Amino acid sequence: MPHHLRVPAPAGPPLTGHLPFADAPGVPDPIEVTSRYLTRGGRPWFPVSGEFHYSRYPAAEWEEELLKMKAGGVTVVAAYVIWIHHEETEGRIRFDGDRDLRRFAELCARHGLDFIPRIGPWVHAEVRGGGLPDWVLARDCAPRTDDPAYLDAVRPWFAAIAEQLRGLDRAHGGPIVAVQIENELYDQPGHLLTLKRMAQEAGLAAPLWTSTAWGGVRLPPDELLPLYGGYTETFWTEADGGWPDTCRKHFFFTHQRDDEGIGSDLRPIGSVRGSAPDAFADRFPWATCELGGGMAVSYHRRPRVDAADIAALGLTKIGCGSVWQGYYMFHGGTNPPGELTTLQESHATGYPNDLPVLTYDFQAPLGEYGQYRATYDELRLQHLLLADFGHLIAPMESVLPQEQPKGQHDRETLRWAVRGDGGSGFLFVNNHQPHEPLPDHPGTSFTVEFEQGSVSLPSEPVTVPSGATFCWPLRLDVAGVRLEWATAQPVCTVDDGGRTVLVLTAVEGIPSELAFAQDTVRSLSVPSGEVTYTDGRVLVTGLRPGTEALVEVETVDGGRVGLLVLDAATARTAYRGVVWGAERLVLAEGGVVFDHGEMRLHSAAEQPSFAVFPAPEGEPGFGRYTLPAEGVFAGEASLTLVRSAGPAPEPVTGVQGRASAPDDKYFDAVAAEYRVDLPSDVPAGTLLRVHWSGDVGRAYAGGVLVGDQFWSGRVWDIGLDRVSEGVLRLRVLSAAEGAAVYVPPEVGEGWGEAGVERVELVTTRRWTVG
Length: 770
Description:
Elements: E1 2-6, E2 31-33, E3 38-40, E4 43-45, E5 48-51, H1 62-71, E6 76-80, H2 83-86, H3 101-110, E7 114-118, H4 134-137, H5 148-164, E8 178-180, H6 189-202, E9 208-212, E10 225-230, H7 245-248, E11 287-292, H8 307-320, E12 325-328, E13 333-334, E14 359-360, H9 374-393, E15 397-399, E16 415-420, E17 425-430, E18 441-450, E19 453-464, E20 469-478, E21 481-486, E22 488-496, E23 499-506, E24 514-517, E25 521-525, E26 530-534, E27 537-541, E28 550-555, E29 560-566, H10 568-571, E30 575-579, E31 582-587, E32 591-593, E33 609-612, E34 623-626, E35 638-643, H11 665-669, E36 672-677, E37 686-693, E38 696-701, E39 704-710, E40 716-719, E41 727-733, E42 755-763, E43 766-769
Parallel strand pairs: 1-18, 5-6, 5-12, 6-7, 8-9, 9-10, 10-11, 11-12, 23-29
Antiparallel strand pairs: 2-3, 3-4, 13-14, 15-16, 16-17, 17-20, 18-19, 20-21, 21-24, 22-23, 24-27, 25-28, 26-27, 28-29, 30-31, 31-32, 33-34, 34-43, 35-36, 36-41, 37-40, 37-42, 38-39, 38-41
Helix pairs in contact: 8-9
């Protein structure tokens, strides 16, 4: 059916100078906040941030992982500074080894990544006590308030953080662009302001000071930039609650920023009633810090997320009006071993969720051991779009069509929106959501009216397939030629020796078409398809997307422009960067496209790879990082059943009546046990991938717990770089019949009897240097 929308002219310039945020004097690219978007160096700025907890990952591998994040389009690294990881024992603050906050921030700076320390002191992060050490909670004080006894504990902690980050602020050329205060504190604006002042007094400085803003939060007026979130799934809701509506709503285009579901397990019931979820909309831009890059699993609720879910969430939020894409988590990790106790959130610590002792993989784009996942490819495509066009999108307002879905369970109305100004824009469509597929939409066309003219597309109505999520440009200027519309999503632009090339990706199931304003085109050549001149437009139809689908345009002023339409599968392998001053677009199968230097890169067709700039410390030139998603190492690990599983432990409930994880004693008494003998020549970056069933699995090396997992239908990976023994012991418990545990219905068949079907050795990385 035809869809229509009018994009009004901007109501007026955004408010500027109304907030007490100021960058360091004299910086070459000052960061400022307007009421609608952020600017950097006077230009609209669209950050992409990804959460990576340094204290949950080996320090020796930080640089490698940061480079992978950068290659995925992340421009800002955010990290909780988890107090209990640094000062488990009062007075013994540790910043050594995997806790070396300063080295982590310096590595971000070395590779051109901005850094945001989220300093708490309460951070949640699925950590024991929300990150507050046990000795703080044992004090006679009221945590997370202005109680002087509590502030007396926080003050030296903030001073220690400030000392670690001294000289890394913007005034000294450092990477710190923001500092987050506390987390999910919804009802104490005075305490948030106290913490900000304490952090500033300790010596912390940043152009932006932020706070999470979900749950109807109250913030000290204009002191903290509110940041929002949204997840595709939850581990913190009830086992029998189904897919939460608070997750469902994120697959619709809406201007409601708040997600009252995040942290709802730790707020009093009804605490959000009477709040104004969008109270900050007129004064602050829509910025996010916790778009779900995946989801943790708890014992009672074990959600599973797919790459398509995260891709739809991310692109929908841009269409809704987001001007800062912040992902939690972008990189998974592992809880460090505690000196006094385990450090995960659990019923034993009074929390309503039992989390695994070690794993904090989060099903993230980059996993607990650096595993590369399909989500990484999907988000990288969006981040490439924002890298080149974010400065255009950020000032554009989100406009919704009059015909809106009739509630959150309407699966029939097409979900779409436009980000636009008076003369151009981007059209967003989302036809995907988890669990409940959306139908095809045959006969679809769009008309978008701008103040400077209307655009109707495509040339013939198309079917929007179930599962499709895309962004199409409208009246986009490309180096002097006006692209009236394209039924392909912009990926990036590449400077090809005096010719600007716009790279686009086709939408699977929809024909790729390009329409140009005829008065901007002198001549045009196409490798395939038909060219039609009509109504002042040059229309290219019948394109066959691929690495050869380069449409070449000569502009009326003699400029040269190319438009390369890639098929969707190839586009997902695209990376870009600069090597030795020359711009490169790297594809998995095509080597380097538009490479005019002497050096050419190539990669094996089955192995996506990307250029890393610069190389890790100690490596000459640049590095290329190969990411085989499913490559199996040419070696074997033998699997031997030592003991069959006994009866499943009786179900036990804990906080809020939720199912509790089985006690440690059962792993010695009734768990199935397997011995895994590893080869002696396992290369670095190898995983043991366990195909298993049951309830809970634990892995031991030399009697020490080295890995654990709650069954959710996924394979269980164990990083062998962190195992010093040549023998692993796997212990797996069976599930109790009728346990109040949620597992995704689409994978629920393996829930039950403990067993390991097979194990394999899987490679995760390989460096080559050129």
